[in-house]
Amino acid sequence: MTELNMWEDYWRSFKNSLPTTLTKLLPLIDRITFPNIFTLIQILATIPVTTCTCERSISVIRRLKTYLRNTMPQNRFNSLALMHVHQDISIDANEMIDCFSRKNPRRMKLVDILNSDPI
User: Fold this and answer.
1) Each residue of 21-65: pLDDT tens digit?
2) Given a cut of 60, is residue 84 above it in pLDDT?
3) Distances (CA, A) of 99 to 43, 93, 94, 111
4) What sequence ranges are listed for the domain HAT C-terminal dimerisation (predicted)?
5) How far apart (Å, rounded) are the C-alpha atoms in residues 28 and 6?
6) Tally of CA atoms within 13 A in the half-sphere of 24 that contains its CB
7) Which of 1, 40, 81, 108 qualifies as a FRET site for 68, CA 20 to 30 Å off?
8) Using an 8 Å Cβ cutoff, are 48 and 25 in contact?
C-alpha cells in the first residue's frame, strides 16, 4: 500500500506531460522505488488487448499445414507462417539473394545463362 501511495504522489508532482501509453511509461518508472508497479506495467504492456493476433496465426496454420506439406521441416514452416502473417513487410529480392549467398557460398555457384560460365 505504501508503494501505491508513493506512486500516486510521484505522478501528482510530475512536471512533464503525462505518458499516453504503457510503452512510454515504462522508461519513466524507477525500478528500485517501484518494483511491484514496474512489474505490473511490464506485464500489462506485453499482454495483447485482443485475441486477433492469436486467431490470425491459427488460421494461417490451417491454410499452410495441408496433407501435402506435412513433411515440411519445422523451421521452414515457421518462416512461411511468419511471412504470411506479416505480408505488409516488403522484402527486397536482391538483398535476400545476397544474404543467402554470404551464408551458403557453395550453393551459389550460379551459371550465367548468356555466357554459360560460372559466376
Assistant:
1) 888 888 888 888 888 888 888 888 887 766 666 677 777 777 766
2) yes
3) 36, 10, 9, 18
4) 33-88
5) 15
6) 6
7) 108
8) no
Point out which residues pair with 111 in neighbouring strands. 118
Q: How far apart are CA 31 and CA 116, in angstroms?
A: 64
d(CA 29, CA 100): 42
The strand pairing partners of 118, in sequence order, are 111
Give the DSSP per-residue string, 53-87: HHHHHHHHHHHH--GGGTTS-HHHHHHHHHHHHTT
Residue 12 confidence (pLDDT) above 70: yes
92 has pLDDT over 80? yes
Tell how far CA 38 is from the center of its chain.
22
Helix H segments across the chain?
2-12, 22-25, 35-46, 52-64, 74-85, 93-103
**C-alpha distances in angstroms, 86 versus 67, 82, 119?**
24, 6, 34
